[in-house]
Amino acid sequence: MSDGTGTLKQIRYLAAALKAPRITEAAGRLAEQARDASWTHEDYLAAVLEREVSARSASGAQLRIRAAGFPARKTLDDFDWDAQPAVRQQIAALASGAFLTEARNIVLLGPPGTGKTHIATGLAVRACQAGHRVLFATATDWVTRLTDAHRHGLLPKELARLRRYGLIIVDEVGYLPFEQDAANLFFQLVSSRYEHASLILTSNLPFSGWGGVFGDQAVAAAMIDRIVHHADVLTLKGTSYRLRGRGIDSLPSIKTQNQAD
Ligand code: ADP
Ligand code: MG
Questions:
Q1: Which CATH fold would you assign to the domain 69-241?
Q2: Residue to probe by mutation, ligand 1, list 76, 108, 241, most atoms within 8 Å of CB
Q3: Whose CA is nearest to atom 5 of ligand 1?
Q4: How far is CA 195 from CA 192, 231, 232, in A?
Q5: Residue 255 pLDDT > 60, yes or no?
Q6: Mean pLDDT value across residues 175-179
Q7: What sign does the dihedral 45-46-51-52 (CA atoms) show?
Q8: Which residues line ligand 1 (CB under 6 A)?
Q9: How far is the CA of 108 from the centre of ligand 1 (A)?
Q10: Average pLDDT for residues 54-72, to the nearest whole number?
């Protein structure tokens, strides 16, 4: 008869050596279940390893979510689809993450407050959970970052490093116009990812307004061409979710309201 205590001790030692501490806990607990349900040895081993693997991937997802730099934790499950019924199906299809393996892009257009950043974050959280590395920043932040790399002669290196991220989010294209140099750097970011890795872009402007943002119609056109070649473009509609129920219909033409008595 085997000495159960001795064996558990040995499992604890081996699990620590493998840096898989959850195996110790799962091995003891699942052993009872295995005996009760007459599992095969293979079933038992698979169940123990499965606990370790799923715990690792959950903590990996948490690490990737933390590292992504989201402005706020938002998920697709928190999203009120009644506010944006027209894109529900399309977002649900994108949530499977197939766009990432095909290096396709997503462009979310629409007025402020309609949920562009929320949906971008929600899709990106799914990507983190599926094992992809993600980085989130505003267009202005990306330009600062690229300008910095360029100044130090490190732009190609930085672009190569960024290609290792399966998904990059460029939030708020169009809130601030770019200098010519900045527009060129941004164009290089888009080109370097073209058909290699995905981008999600959000903008309050239609594509026709991007020329003004990039200060150059030709740069804007070349960039849009690469972005939308393999992309889903979704347009959110309506008024700001932030202003709902506050008696304000639209921005920036907020009418002076008569104060209720
Ligand atoms: P945008 O990026 O289009 O300006 P956000 O995604 O930042 O808008 O949305 C503004 C705020 O309203 C956020 O707190 C967001 O979570 C919330 N919000 C917007 N649309 C919805 C929605 N349909 N359901 C739930 N929350 C929403
Ligand atoms: Mg936003």
A1: Rossmann fold (3.40.50)
A2: 241
A3: 115
A4: 9, 11, 14
A5: no
A6: 87
A7: positive
A8: 74, 78-80, 83-84, 110, 112-118, 202, 241-242
A9: 12
A10: 94
Domain boundary assignment for the chain: 4-67, 69-241
pTM of the model: 0.83
In testing the pocket of ligand 1, which one of 78, 118, 200 has its CB within 8 Å of the most ligand atoms? 118
202-249 pLDDT, tens per residue? 999 999 999 899 888 899 999 999 999 999 999 999 989 988 877 666
Assigned token pair, 93: 């299809």
Cα 226 to averaged position of ligand 1 atoms, centre (Å):
28
How many other CB atoms sit within 10 Å of the CB of residue 40? 9
The atom number, within ligand 1, closest to the CA of 171 reads 2
Backbone phi, psi, residue 77, to 5°: -70, -25
178/47 Cα distance (integer angstroms):
54
Angle at 21 between CA 65 and CA 51, to 5 degrees: 65
